[in-house]
Amino acid sequence: MQNRTLEVGVGLFLLAGLLALMLLALRVSGLTMGSSEDTYKVYAYFDNIAGLTVRSKVTMAGVTIGKVVAIDLDRDSYTGRVTMSIDKEVNNLPEDSTASILTAGLLGEKYIGISVGGEEEVLKDGGTIHDTQSSLVLEDLIGKFLLNSVNKDESK
Amino acid sequence: MRKRTPIERVALLGRAGIDVVATLGRSSMFLVRALLGRGTSGNSFHLLVKQLHSVGVMSLAIIVVSGLFIGMVLSLQGFNILSSYGSEQAVGQMVALTLLRELGPVVAALLFAGRAGSALTAEIGNMKSTEQLSSLAMIGVDPLKHIVAPRLWAGFISMPLLAMIFSVVGIWGGAMVAVDWLGVYEGSFWSNMQSSVSFTDDVLNGVIKSIVFGFVVTWIAVFQGYDCEPTSEGISQATTRTVVYASLAVLGLDFILTALMFGDF
Amino acid sequence: MGADSHYAVELKNVSFKRGDRDIFKNIDVCIPRGKVIGIMGPSGSGKTTLLRLIAAELKPSAGEVWVNGVDLPTLSRSELFDMRKQMGVLFQSGALFTDLDVFENVAFPLRVHTKLPDEMIRDIVLMKLQAVGLRGAIDLMPDELSGGMKRRVALARAIALDPQILIYDEPFVGQDPIAMGVLVRLIRLLNDALGITSIVVSHDLAETASIADYIYVVGNTQVLGQGTPSELMKSDSPRIQQFMQGAADGPVPFHFPAASYRDDLLGAR
């Protein structure tokens, strides 16, 4: 009888370990099963992707609809090519939708926001979003602002 | 005490070095024989279950309680620091990454060395001093197979499981403090965590760490017990050595593994 | 085959060194089948080492150890473990497995080495325990037994597989007179009833002499003398006389080798 409780205890321990692994996979790292089948790929070219990383969110109207799976440099156009995987359920993105790199809060994470276009044609697997808005680079902005105020001073 | 000449000092140093190398060699042969050698050991499955119980299940309480408190403290500290940058929703990712990459495997291994490692050394040392090991050998059962091997396997299996349970409980404790107590929005707590934690880079690397730690800690513990002076003084010294060596090995290996996994070279 | 089948154990020209120190130098010991053999000698004379050589827990530095016609030092590790099924060893402390009860302790060798059904194992265990008079203690744990009872349970375990050779390591140490009497009787009884060869390693003169058919006295890296107990009593070797009569001083000196007492006292200044 004592053996029985021992075996049950060990069995529960092993189960708890497996459960922990599953929780870590699904709940903590947000791994989804068979993710490649339920999503499709869309590309976008940005002049500057500064701060965007792989696994950043892709949102539409604030709702997460996918994530960034790869970022690389397009050698011909010298732009950053971002590969996104979008949930299959959202298969009605118009072809002329806009993708912009946004920031959550002033110093928060970068993510991609997609705003809907007006075309009837929808993006297919492997399609490209042409209308993009690059990341807002704080240094550029401050630089521009300073330059503007200097110019204004001179023109006076 | 007599004064030693410089030559004698050098000789002593050399002898100590030879001792270290010899111990390494002896423990490696011990490991290979226990894991790969053939021989009768009786019902090995039952022996393994029994050891999984005393090594794994009995360590569960300390692992769960420590994990809970460490997660809660991490969350509290993280919140205080992050809120001064206005990004307290990142507390989830901070807690999760800290636990998965470092604290989970390392602290669980240190606790494991203290709880299960010392018990393994003392138990085997005691068997040696009461001639139970010799007696097994005389019955025609290889103590390496019957006593040592099931304990080694139980340690190898238990450690990664314990480390994962530690991390999960810690993250849960962290979530409890951050969401229920400090008022971080639950959705952003988890989504921030999920978008920054990678299964392969963070979870699996942490599991690999704990597998390595489990291997080393169990090996040290079982070998120290098997190799100890079979007296009560020898056993207590061996138990102390187990905890000290195992802890140092875990911390040293953690640095090396971290450099290999997360360092950029 | 190098060993005469008349002998159960035969040590030929065996030497054993621990570090640089000689424990044995070219000794020969022959142990005939079916007898009770005493191996005696003062403490520290290497009796236990001799036992461990016969049980192949130690390898001799040189020489041959033949047990049942097999030269032990030439065997591989796993062959050795097989070989040991033919031997039973009763350790000084009994060495019962503390996590198993009396029944499981005695059943252990049977469970490991045989595939007998549970009922049969139970019957054999009961028979062995009956032989040592402890059938009633079947459900007790080792820490509930007295020292003498532990040794008897260990004896039951040692004979579980019906070994051909039974080795006793200091069986009389730390036993009260009754327990000692019981053990002496048991050793003789088991030897005669089961037809096994018994090797008793001991320094208790009276008890060993009362059961042994033949005695080897070892000491000083050599076999000092051998013979039946009565022959040894009459031996004219001073070393054996000192041992047999328990004299404090003799060829084995009372004083540990030291510098002259006078020099030591005066030289302290």
UniProtKB/TrEMBL annotation, chain A:
PANTHER family linked to this entry: INTERMEMBRANE PHOSPHOLIPID TRANSPORT SYSTEM BINDING PROTEIN MLAD, INTERMEMBRANE PHOSPHOLIPID TRANSPORT SYSTEM BINDING PROTEIN MLAD-RELATED
Domain of life: Bacteria
Organism: Pseudomonas segetis
Name under which the protein is recorded: Phospholipid/cholesterol/gamma-HCH transport system substrate-binding protein
Any one GO molecular function term: phospholipid binding
Residue ranges of domain Mce/MlaD in the record: 39-116
InterPro entries assigned: ABC_MlaD, Mce/MlaD, MlaD_Phospholipid_Transporter
Pfam families according to UniProt: MlaD
TrEMBL record, chain B:
Cited InterPro entries: ABC_MlaE_roteobac, MlaE_Permease, Permease_MalE
Any GO molecular function: phospholipid transporter activity
Signal sequence coordinates: none
Keyword Cell inner membrane (UniProt): yes
Compartment(s) where it occurs, according to its Swiss-Prot or TrEMBL record: Cell inner membrane
Family named by the database record: Belongs to the MlaE permease family.
Quaternary structure and partners: The complex is composed of two ATP-binding proteins (MlaF), two transmembrane proteins (MlaE), two cytoplasmic solute-binding proteins (MlaB) and six periplasmic solute-binding proteins (MlaD).
Function as written in the Swiss-Prot or TrEMBL entry: Part of the ABC transporter complex MlaFEDB, which is involved in a phospholipid transport pathway that maintains lipid asymmetry in the outer membrane by retrograde trafficking of phospholipids from the outer membrane to the inner membrane. Probably responsible for the translocation of the substrate across the membrane.
PANTHER family: ABC TRANSPORTER PERMEASE PROTEIN-RELATED (PTHR30188), PROTEIN TRIGALACTOSYLDIACYLGLYCEROL 1, CHLOROPLASTIC (PTHR30188:SF4)
Protein name, per record: Intermembrane phospholipid transport system permease protein MlaE
TrEMBL record, chain C:
UniProt cross-references to Gene3D superfamilies, sorted A to Z: P-loop containing nucleotide triphosphate hydrolases
The keyword Nucleotide-binding belongs to this UniProt entry's keyword annotation: yes
CDD domains linked to this entry: ABC_Org_Solvent_Resistant
Keyword Nucleotide-binding: yes
Pfam family, one: ABC_tran
GO molecular function, one term: ATP binding
Domain annotation ABC transporter: ranges: 9-245
Keywords: ATP-binding, Nucleotide-binding, Transport
Taxonomic superkingdom: Bacteria
InterPro entries: AAA+_ATPase, ABC_transporter-like_ATP-bd, ABC_transporter-like_CS, P-loop_NTPase
UniProt-listed GO biological process terms: lipid transport
Family: Belongs to the ABC transporter superfamily. MlaF family.
Complexes and interactors: The complex is composed of two ATP-binding proteins (MlaF), two transmembrane proteins (MlaE), two cytoplasmic solute-binding proteins (MlaB) and six periplasmic solute-binding proteins (MlaD).
Function description: Part of the ABC transporter complex MlaFEDB, which is involved in a phospholipid transport pathway that maintains lipid asymmetry in the outer membrane by retrograde trafficking of phospholipids from the outer membrane to the inner membrane. Responsible for energy coupling to the transport system.
Name this protein carries in UniProt: Intermembrane phospholipid transport system ATP-binding protein MlaF
Organism of derivation: Pseudomonas segetis
